[in-house]
Design brief:
49% helix; mainly alpha; 0% strand; flat
Length: 184
């Protein structure tokens, strides 16, 4: 009964579209997790591995759900995203890496070496700097005479490129002039 109900099919279509977006975001997060897996601490690697295992189960269930939706015709076939299944080989590789990390002797905590503070160069106070005395035979140069102010010249007014001022010819007048020019 629910398989043939239009309201149920429309609701499933909306759920399906949302799940496509969520699947893409989950794959991006898993990609980042895989990229950083070897750089994480052991405890974080265990959490990451658990996330991969649960994501693998979820993706397997999602593949089944998408297959059922395709059979029911909930969405067009081109709307379905291509599923990337987390393989058992990847899970075994991550598990092997975890075992290696667990068997590795823990490195002693790095002793924090106290570095001597870097001495900042102190800048000399600008008020403490004194000028050198002027030479004995030095005379200051005469101040230059003030330039004469040029007579105000009439500035040329340039017109607009399209001459949009009030004294411009209206479109009707321009049309009349063109018509006269054509027929005369």
């Amino acid at each position: 009964m629910a398989k043939s109900n239009r309201l149920v099919l429309v609701a499933l279509h909306q759920i399906l579209k949302k799940s496509f977006g969520l699947y893409v975001e989950i794959c991006e997060a898993l990609g980042i997790l895989l990229y950083r897996f070897t750089k994480m601490e052991y405890v974080d690697c265990v959490k990451g591995f658990d996330a991969y295992v649960s994501a693998a189960k979820m993706i397997d269930e999602l593949v089944g759900f998408y297959g059922w939706c395709k059979d029911m015709g909930i969405a067009r076939s081109f709307e379905y995203t291509e599923m990337q299944i987390i393989t058992n080989k990847l899970l075994r590789t991550l598990e092997g890496f975890l075992k290696e990390m667990a068997n590795r002797p823990k490195s002693p905590e790095r002793s924090r070496e106290e570095k001597p503070p870097v001495k900042e160069e102190t800048e000399a106070n600008m008020n403490e700097i004194k000028d050198l005395p002027a030479p004995e035979n030095y005379s200051p140069p005469p101040s230059p005479p003030e330039p004469e102010q040029p007579k105000s010249q009439r500035q040329q007014v340039t017109e607009d490129l399209v001459n949009l001022k009030d004294d411009a010819v209206s479109a009707d007048e321009q049309g009349n002039k063109l018509a006269l020019a054509l027929f005369s």
